[in-house]
Amino acid sequence: MCSLKQSYYSSLGSGTNNINNIRNPMFQIPISSSISLPKIPNLSAISVSKPLHISSIESLGSLNIRSRSKSLIKAYDADQSEGQGVVEKAEAARKVKIGFYFATWWFLNVIFNIYNKKVLNAFPFPWLTSTLSLAAGSLIMLISWATKVVEAPNTDLDFWKSLFPVALAHTIGHVAATVSMSKVAVSFTHIIKSGEPAFSVLVSRFLLGETFPLPVYLSLVPIIGGCGLAALTELNFNMTGFMGAMISNLAFVFRNIFSKRGMKGKSVSGMNYYACLSLLSLLILTPFAIAVEGPQLWAVGWQKAITEIGPHFIWWVAAQSIFYHLYNQVSYMSLDEISPLTFSIGNTMKRISVIVSSIIIFRTPVQPVNALGAAIAVLGTFLYSQAKQ
After folding, report:
1. Which bin fits 363, alpha (ψ -120 to 50), beta or left (φ > 0)?
2. CB 213, CB 266: distance < 8 Å
3. Which of 97, 164, 270, 387 sits at 20 to 30 Å (Cα–Cα) from 295?
4. At what angle do helices 312-335 and 270-292 cross, to 10 degrees?
5. Integer distance in angstroms from the first to the last C-alpha of the chain?
């Protein structure tokens, strides 16, 4: 057996020198040449430097990794494109929504001013007219809350305490503006009301101690100059109408100041905020309207208006009351979607639309110098809104 094994290894060694070299010389035994063994294939034909089976596995794994990486990249790019598309669609929808708010706001404001002036021409009782405007809005929102069309706000006593000075200033500003429009043209009232930024800066500077950059103060020059030029050249100038517009400006400035101070941290939507403001303003205004004008004067004036105008007068009163609430409600709703700068620009454009439309509808005579003063005042308001930011 030992001879056979040794012969086998010897034969194997004759085919492969490498194996023969590593054989132990101590166990070398003479081998008979008469014994022949099957020839073993030459193992050196198999390359150990290039393991094909290992190379094949690595290549397959590399291809799989590359294909998976490409798939992941494509999926990521698709997600990125889809996410960017969603953002772009959302931004486009937001712009459409804001544009709709602005168009509705301007349209409702123009309609209100037209019907309000018609009512005041036939029924010159601005205190009652102002009260009816607030009453219509309050009734609309109470019905909306009761029928669950709009979710009622969650308020407490602190909320109403904070809202009271805002409502007081809102009431004064609303009545003063209505008194102004009962005495002068709608266009003149709004030209004077475009000077509200001047009151805002003066009150904030001298009563609150706030300071502003130089461009803000410079923007007041065209505002004050334009309003003054328009007032001096107004054909139907009336001091009561002029003072009413000025008082309205001052009251609305304080309304904004009280609103910023008192409503911090209060989570109430723009729609519900204005609804609460209307309710509280109505409670404040009603006793004063009765004391200043009274039911007896209202009854006489109402009968006279019905006789001269006819049943259409009732529609005028209802329209001016409803549109007053709607345009204010939309303006407060828009504040939830836009910045104060955008709102200020929108308010400036609103005044332009009201001034132009009222001049056309009521055929208000306007001198070139008067129109120039109005344009300068409105331009100054726009410059103020830019400089304030």
Report:
1. left
2. no
3. 164
4. 140
5. 107
Residue 291: its pLDDT value, please? 96
Long-range contacts of 55-58 (CB under 8 A, 24+ apart): none
**Tens digits of residue pLDDT in 39-53:** 444 444 444 444 544
Q: What is the DSSP letter of 114?
A: H
Instruction: Tell me the angle at which helices 126-146 and 312-335 cross, rounded to the nearest 10 degrees.
Output: 60
From 26, 31, 37, select the one nearest 3 (Cα to Cα).
31
Place of tokens 């955008």: 342
Q: In the chain, which stretches have pLDDT less than 50? A: 1-50, 52-56
> Which ranges of 336-367 does DSSP label H, i.e. alpha helix?
340-362
Instruction: Report how far residue 276's alpha carbon sits from residue 387's, in angstroms, rounded to the nearest whole number.
Output: 32
User: Which structure tokens are listed for 235?
Assistant: 């054909």
**Are 223 and 344 a contacting pair, CB within 8 Å?**
no
Helix axes 157-183, 186-193, angle to 10 degrees: 130
- Rounded Cα distance, 59 and 50, in Å: 13
Q: Which amino acid is at 201?
A: V
